[in-house]
Amino acid sequence: MRDLNVKYLVGGPIGASRPLPPYDGRVCNFLAELSRALQRDRRTALYPDLLSFAFFCRKANIMKLKKEFEDGRVRLGKGLAFHIAPSNVPVNCAFTYVFGLLAGNANIVRVPSGEPRQIILLCDIMRAMLADEKYNDIWDRTAFITYGHDEAVNDALSARADVRVIWGGNETISKIRQSPIKPRCTEITFADRYSFALIAPEAVADADDDELRRLAERFYNDTYLMDQNACSTPHLIIWFSEGGEKAKVGKQRFWEAVCQTAEKYDLADIKVSDKYVMLCRYAIELEDIESVQRFENLLYVVTLQELPDIITRLRGRFGLFFQYDIRQLGELARHIDETVQTCTCYGVDQEAVRNFAVNHGLRGIDRVVPVGSALDIGVIWDGYDIVRQMSRIIG
């Protein structure tokens, strides 16, 4: 690794390091201290995603995950994990590192290009912590790096890896897979995914003003915070209802509240123009648009008479959403393929949605979570039990 054309943001070349058991005490203590260090630093408050990461790493959560992980089996990390982090959600590079560390591995993490500010801050804090000798074991297992589109680096790191984790979509996966891996290397890939929201409009109509504001804020966090770029962000809102006047009231209340919340959104001129061009393109390409409702430039809502067979065509950005009405969950079955990841719910029984996925043998819907939790990444993601897959059982 010393001869590779890479820039180290944290750590240095990783040599041979022995795997640790999952949730090793040294790792858990380091993550708890990292959480405290991030929360103490005033700069972290500028980055909600980094605060969420700090909250994930807190001691209570790590101990909870450890308890859930333990099943009486003896496990050990696989060795060296090579992570290619996504560019659309910068803080994912921190989460994938933590998953590898919790599994007992040494970790080389390729940070998104452009070196996002919150990741530079994270790296600054980590470097200061890892300078302490008590974290030598963590230092030996940590490298955050950046490099350009360099096949030689991909080849070298892939050839060494015992685990390769690829985030960033189908194109990235295809490119990285041109670099061979060892026969026993475990590969985990996070392909392009699509998500939607399932909302009962009557529940919105019945919500008091405070609850409606909270709902709008949670929906804003799921969508606008990442410009609708995250794989778990809903683009399509499915209204689950028998219809009627109350349902109409609920829908209108919802969108008006979302628009009001979105007034704090950084709606740059380029976003306005891109969103308008996108709307015009859909008006030409989609045959089943019933109406378009505009709430100033902050929010466009496209109402559909019918869903296209491939709902993943329905993708918005910067506050462009699609909506459609159903009376029964079964109406969605033929539209759910393996690309569908997250269903966020409000006023809908989440267990009923899970049962719907099971009873129909759906290849999609890996997560069913409340509105506001779309971006809450965890050790189970995209249907993977990540820490278990990055470790091995000694039977």
Q: Ends: how far apart?
A: 33 Å
- Strand residues, percent: 15-25%
Could you say which structural class the secondary elements and strand pairing correspond to? alpha/beta
Give the CATH class of the largest domain.
Alpha Beta
What is the total tally of β strands?
A: 17
List segments where confidence is low: pLDDT < 50 over at least 5 consecutive residues. Answer: none
- Whole-number average pLDDT? 94
Main-sheet strand order equals 10-11-12-9-8-13-14
Structure description:
With about 400 residues, the chain is α/β, with parallel strands linked by helices. The chain has a seven-stranded mixed beta sheet with strand order 10-11-12-9-8-13-14, with helices on both faces. A six-stranded mixed beta sheet has the order 1-5-4-3-6-7, with helices on both faces. Strands 2-17 form a two-stranded antiparallel ribbon. The mean pLDDT is about 95. It is built from 14 helices and 17 strands. Helix 1 (about 25-40) packs antiparallel against helix 2 and helix 10 packs across helix 11. The two termini are about 35 Å apart.
